[in-house]
Amino acid sequence: MLEQVKLKRIEAEKQGEPILRNKSFDLLLEKVKEKKPKRILEIGVNLGLSSIAMLLVSQNSLLTGIEIDEQKVKKAKDNYAFFNVDKRAKIFTGDASEIIPVLTGSYDFIFLDGPKGHYFEYLPHLLGVLERGGILFADNVLFRGYVDGKVKTPHRFNTTKNSMEKFLQAISSDSGLKTEIIDIEDGISITEKLL
Q: What does each of the 195 residues of the chain score in pLDDT, given as a tens digit?
């Protein structure tokens, strides 16, 4: 089944969909396999392919996703049904900035792949619903090489870059968190909530 997901990812990429890059995808699945989370939260579901892969490698997990684009929500739900994980996955349709602050319950794994300029804004709310010992896995944290200074930041991306720098500073300096920043593809941060 995972091979079929990978084929769908290739198709989606050819159609210009912003899918999680291959090494980052493999690392995400490795962490989910290790953690075997009970409840996963995904911000930025897109077509649901990462959700499906996480549910396939962790058979007892339940997933809640957030996606603003209604067309993508429909495609994601179709994909969930196709891969027979629809009973274990639900999606909130709407703006993550409005949904995240009112989330209830708790999650032991959060995959953050939504709007890059909002990671810092989301952080306190995400840490609020992340269980002790839980993992926050964030994609695109080095944002096209702008954050680590490998590439000069075009003016229009300054706000996003600054927000991402604040996010990385916050997860790296908090003594209640243990964070690893991995310089692969567009950058990954893996944060464990210790307290």
A: 899 999 999 999 999 898 899 999 999 999 999 999 999 999 999 999 999 999 999 999 999 999 999 999 999 999 999 999 999 999 999 999 999 999 988 999 999 999 889 999 999 999 999 999 999 999 999 887 777 777 787 878 788 888 899 999 999 999 999 999 999 988 999 999 998
- Of 141, 137, 131, 124, which Cα lies nearest the Cα of 194? 131
CA atoms within 13 A on the CB side of 169: 8
Q: Exposure string (b/e) for 66-104, b if CB count within 10 Å is 16 or more?
A: bbbeeebbebbbebbeebebbebbebbbeebeebbeebe
pTM score, whole prediction: 0.94
Between CA 92 and CA 29 the distance in angstroms is 22
Nearest Cα neighbor of 42 from 21, 61, 65 is 65
Distance CA 62, CA 87 (A): 9
**Which runs of consecutive H residues, i.e. helices, occur in 102-157?**
119-129
The CATH architecture assigned to 2-193 reads 3-Layer(aba) Sandwich (3.40)
Q: Can you say whether the dihedral through the CA atoms of 108, 112, 114, 117 is positive or negative?
A: positive
